[in-house]
């Protein structure tokens, strides 16, 4: 396969179990930039094995800068006219691989492409083509987009120009976490989101604790089509609702602690005696 004028960039930390299949799906890229923030598993050895086979990989170490900062660093290292952001646990499906040549031949006024993403659900597999998350900007012309470094989570490229949506193809997201681990992930991401909004001075909206979780669930389950995946789809949508609740509740509590710091009434009683 002819290499495309395309740099794929990946940030990673202890991704030995997932990274190989990600790399394999990028065989048409002229360059693969992998930025590691200190893996202690076999990630480095895995990447070196691909380098030894002649894969066009640049493997770099960079201390953790946060999600947006780390991805911006990786993007800055890319040398090709087009740059593709892909996570270590994602892969290009075959339709997207086939579509890439036409995407990067877009007219000059198109600076980027939004791409669909399909997760792997325990008990089901990859969601079907009709079940997709919102398309996100993943393919950008070099120098025509950058990450918003104020974003602690759900970071994305901010484009400088027109962005189109890819008609076919998807990123396949393979990280089948059992619900025990998925809830820990939702807890971590909701903390990052709450801290970001609190630092930005966003006021608490207690009503979001009531309405955001079901709205988040219904968006994923009905509008995005997770109902097609049975109970695995229900679980996926429900954990999204948990994330929405945790985010709203954490923002509320951060503001509540500012207004009224915790104080044990029994401590007042004890001192008064």
Automatic annotation (TrEMBL):
This is Lipopolysaccharide biosynthesis protein. It holds the Pfam family Glycos_transf_2. Belongs to the glycosyltransferase 2 family. WaaE/KdtX subfamily. PANTHER family: GLYCOSYLTRANSFERASE, POLY-BETA-1,6-N-ACETYL-D-GLUCOSAMINE SYNTHASE. Gene3D superfamilies: Spore Coat Polysaccharide Biosynthesis Protein SpsA, Chain A. Residues 7-117 form the Glycosyltransferase 2-like domain.
């Amino acid at each position: 396969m002819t290499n495309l004028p395309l740099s794929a960039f990946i940030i990673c930390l202890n991704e030995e179990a997932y990274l190989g299949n990600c790399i394999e799906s990028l065989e048409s890229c002229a360059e693969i930039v992998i930025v590691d923030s200190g893996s202690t598993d076999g990630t480095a050895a895995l990447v070196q094995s691909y380098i030894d086979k002649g894969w066009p990989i640049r493997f770099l170490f960079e201390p953790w800068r946060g999600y947006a900062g780390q991805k911006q660093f990786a993007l800055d290292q890319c040398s090709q006219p087009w740059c593709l952001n892909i996570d270590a646990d994602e892969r290009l499906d075959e339709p997207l691989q086939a579509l890439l040549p036409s995407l990067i031949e877009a007219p000059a006024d198109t600076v980027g492409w939004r791409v669909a993403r399909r997760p792997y659900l325990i008990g089901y597999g990859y969601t079907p083509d009709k079940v997709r998350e919102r398309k996100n900007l993943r393919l950008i012309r070099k120098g025509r987009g950058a990450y918003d470094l104020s974003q602690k989570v759900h970071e994305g490229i901010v484009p400088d120009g027109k962005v189109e949506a890819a008609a076919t193809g998807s990123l396949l997201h393979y990280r089948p976490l059992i619900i025990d681990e998925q809830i820990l992930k939702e807890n971590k991401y909701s903390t990052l989101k709450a801290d970001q909004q609190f630092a930005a001075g966003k006021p608490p909206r207690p009503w979001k604790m009531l309405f955001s979780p079901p709205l988040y669930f219904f968006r994923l389950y009905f509008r995005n089509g997770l109902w097609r995946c049975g109970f695995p789809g229900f679980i996926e949508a429900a954990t999204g609702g948990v994330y929405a609740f945790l985010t709203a509740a954490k923002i509320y509590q951060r503001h509540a602690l500012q207004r009224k710091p915790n104080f044990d009434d029994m401590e007042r009683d004890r001192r008064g005696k």
